[in-house]
Design brief:
It contains 8 helices and no strands. The protein is mainly α.
Length: about 140
């Protein structure tokens, strides 16, 4: 059993209390959250402020194709989030491999990749030629 910080325990109790109150008033918590902005804000705030709860919620949101699509679309629609994801992909050789495999999965993607690689090769050769010329 791991002990949470005071803030984490408080967020957990707020969430439990909110769910209990909503469940007592109405058997449908999803419906109550949809109708009552204050309840929705309290529950979402409690989840967002607790890393364990936030992690569990992220796992649930990524658990189905439909929800995963919504999450990814939301991330890509936000410039800062999209840039962060792309940065993380660029730092992971496995993720880069996934991107290249996806890009090469059709003829248009393969053609685009071939053009990019040709440009990269030409730039690397030009750089190497410049280095050799400055050594002479």
């Amino acid at each position: 059993m791991t002990l949470k910080s005071g803030k984490g325990r408080k967020a957990g109790w707020v969430l439990i209390t909110t769910i209990a109150l909503v469940a007592g008033c109405s058997g449908d918590i999803a419906g109550e959250m949809g109708r009552n902005v204050q309840v929705r804000e309290r529950v979402m705030g409690a989840i967002a402020s607790d890393s364990v709860l936030a992690g569990e919620m992220a796992t649930r949101l990524l658990g189905s194709d439909r929800q995963r699509l919504r999450v990814v679309d939301k991330i890509l629609a936000d410039d800062r989030s999209a840039q962060y994801v792309l940065l993380r992909i660029g730092q992971s050789p496995t993720a880069v491999d996934y991107v290249l495999q996806a890009a090469a999965s059709d003829s248009a993607g393969r053609e685009h990749l071939a053009g990019l690689f040709k440009k990269m090769l030409a730039a690397m050769q030009a750089k190497q030629n410049t280095k050799q010329a400055t050594k002479k």
